[in-house]
Amino acid sequence: MDGKGKERHADDLFKEFKETSITEFFRKNKTHLGYSGSIRSLTTVIHEMVTNSLDACEEAGIQPDISVAIKKLGNDHYLIRSEDNGPGIPIRHISGVFGKMLAGTKFHRNIQLRGQQGIGVAGVTLFSQITTGKPIKIKTSTGKGKVNEIALMIDIAKNKADILSNNEYSQYWRGTEIECELKGVNFTLREQGPFEYLRRTAIANPHAKITFTDPEGRRTIFERSTEKVPKPPVEIKPHPKGTEVDDLVNMAKITDGRKVSSFLTSTFSRMSNAKVKEIQKIINEGDAPFDLNKSPKKLTWAECEQIINAIKEIKFLAPPTEGLQPIGEEQIRKAILNILDPEFEAILTRNPTAHSGGVPFQVEVAIAYGGQAGRNIGDGTKVEIMRFANRTPLLFDSGACAITKSVNSVEWKRYGIKDFDNSPTTILINVVSTYIPYTSAGKQSIADDEDIMKEIRMALMEVGRKYQIFYSRQKRDMEKEVRKQILMRYSTELAAGLANITGKKEEEILKKLNTLVLEKLKLEDELDTLEEDEEEEIEDDSGIKDPEEGMVSGAENGT
Ligand SMILES: Nc1ncnc2c1ncn2[C@@H]1O[C@H](COP(=O)(O)OP(=O)(O)OP(=O)(O)O)[C@@H](O)[C@H]1O
Ligand SMILES: [Mg+2]
Fold it and tell me: Are 246 and 370 in contact (CB under 8 A)?
C-alpha cells in the first residue's frame, strides 16, 4: 500500500472496457464533423446536402437543379429542405446512405468528387436527431416509376438505420429531397451563412442552377451561366509513388492478378512492363531477391517493403490528370466580372501535378482589384480570400488552411499592393484533387501539404506579377497626365512671349507648340510599350517552371 491509498486490480479496471460505434464517437465529438456553433452547424448541414447533390448529378451526367429552403420554427429551431434532380438513391441503399457512417460510393475510389468519406449526410441525420429527437425524411426515386418516402433515425450503438416509415407509391419523377429539423442553429446573412455558401457554390459550379429560400421567404435564384455539363469524373489509378507498404499489402490480398508483375501493371498508373523489370532488377541486387512472377497473395510484408523501396529509386511519369476538373479560366472570369466588376483581374490555372508523391491535384487562382472586390467592413475594405476545394466553398477554419497560409506567405508589397490586408482585393483559389488532405472530417480547411502550398504560391506570384504590370502602367499613365498638363501650361506662356517678340499670331504658335508636346508624349508612349513587351518576354523566360515538371523523381517524392 505504501501510503498511496487502495490499489485496484487490472481486472477491476477492465470491467469498464467496452467497444463503441463510430456513430457514438461522432455523437460525442460532433465538432469533428463541423457541428460547432449555431451558425456553422447550419451551414454544415447545407454543405453536406448540396455537395452530395452536385456529386450525384455530375456522376450521372445531369445538369444540376438544386433548391434549398430554410424555415424558422422557433428561436434557434429551423426546418431545412433540400431538393435535387439527381439520379436518386436505390431503395436498398437508403439505410446505408442516411443511417450509417463510413458508408458511401466514394471513399474507396481515386476520383475528384466533393465527398470522400461516407460520413456527411449520416452526420446530418445524427445532428438532427440529437438536437430535436426527430427523424430525417427522405423522398427519392431513380426515375423508374416508384417513389419512396422514408423517415429514419440512426441506431447509434449499432451505427445502422432505424426505418420508422416507408411509403412507396407510383409516380414518374427522379431526384432526392431531404427534410430535417435542427435545434441550436442560427441563420445569418453574414459571410459564414448559407446564402454566401450557396453564392460561392454557384461561382464555382456555373453549370448548376441553385435556388435558395431564406427564413424570411426571400427567394434567390443563382442561374447557371453555362449549359455545359462537366464531364463525369473519371477514376485515376493510384500512382506508385503515393503508395505505402501497408497499401500494397492490402491491395495484394484482394487482387485477382495471378502474378505480382501483372498485379503491379494493372493496379497502378504509369507502371509499365519496363518499370516492373526495373523493380525486379533492384530486388535481384538486394539481400533477399524474389521473383515478381510469384502470386501476389503470397507476398510477405518484407517483400512488399522491397517493392516500395525499389519504387522510390525509380522515376515515373507524373500521375495522369485527365480526371481533374478545374472551374476553368473563362468561367472564373465571367463570375468575377459579373459579381465584382473590378478595375483589374487576372486568372490562372496551373498545370496539374502531384501531392504526397502520387495524388494528382491542380490549382487555379484569380485576383480582382478595385470595383466591388474585397470585403466591405463599414468604413473600409479588407482583403477577401475565397477558398474552394473541389469547387466547394470553404468558409471556416481559415487560419489553419494551406490556402490562407499560402496567401499570407506572399510579399504583396513586391507586386505593388502596399497594405494588402486592407486593400480592395479578392483572391479566389480552388484546389482540385482526387484526394484533398483536409485537416478534419469537417472538411473546411486543407492541411499544410508542401506540394499544394508551393503550387498555390507559384500561382499567386504569377498573378501578382500581372497585377504589378497593371499597377506600374496605371502609375505611369498618371505621371504622364501630370507632365502633359505642366507642358501645356508652359506652352501657353511661351506662346504669349514668342508672339510678343516675333509679332506672329499667338494662337498659331500655341497650336504648333502643343503639337510638339503631343508628339513628344506619343513618342515616349511608344518607347514605353516597347519596354513593357521586353519586360514581359523576360518574365516568361525566367518563369517558375520546375525543371522536374512532368516527372516524379525518386529523390523528391520517395518519402
Ligand atoms: N442527393 C443524393 N443523390 C444520390 N446519391 C446520394 C445523394 N446523397 C448521398 N448520396 C449517396 O450517399 C453516399 C453517402 O453520402 P455521404 O455524404 O454520407 O458521404 P460521401 O458524400 O460519400 O462522403 P463525405 O462524407 O465526404 O460527404 C454517397 O457516397 C452517395 O453515394
Ligand atoms: Mg457527402
Answer: no
Does the Cβ of 52 fall within 6 Å of ligand 1? yes
Residue 214 lies in a domain: yes
Work out how many domains the chain is built from and give that number. Answer: 4
Please give the grid coordinates belonging to residue 46.
447545407
Any atom of ligand 1 within 6 Å of the Cβ of 115:
yes
547 belongs to a structural domain: no
What is the position in ligand 1's atom list of the atom closest to the CA of 82? 1
Q: Establish whether residue 84 lines the binding site of ligand 1, counting it when its CB lies within 6 angstroms of any ligand atom.
A: yes
Tell whether ligand 1 has an atom less than 6 A from the beta carbon of residue 125: no
Say what the pTM is.
0.83
What is the whole-number distance in angstroms between the Cα of residue 120 and the centre of ligand 2? 4
Evaluate: CB of 175 within 6 angstroms of ligand 1: no
User: For the residues of 266-288, what is the DSSP string, one character each?
Assistant: HHSTT--HHHHHHHHHHHHHSSS
Ligand 1 close to Cβ of residue 48 (< 6 A): yes
| pLDDT digit string, tens, across residues 153-207 | 999 999 999 999 999 999 999 999 999 999 999 999 988 999 999 999 999 999 9
Condensed to tens digits (0 to 9), the pLDDT of residues 77-89 reads 999 999 999 999 9
> Which numbered atom of ligand 1 lies nearest the CA of 443?
26
Residues 146 and 278 in one domain: no
Q: Which structural domain, as residue segments, surrounds residue 52?
A: 22-222
Q: State how far the Cα of 54 lies from the Cα of 66, in Å rounded to an integer.
A: 8
**Which domain-ending residue is among 291, 317, 343?**
317
Asked if 88 and 132 sit in the same domain, the reply is yes
Distance between CA 337 and CA 462 in Å, rounded? 20
Q: For atom 12 of ligand 1, which residue has the closest CA?
A: 97
Does one domain contain both 250 and 339? no
- For the four alpha carbons of 469, 475, 478 and 484, in that order, the dihedral sign comes to negative
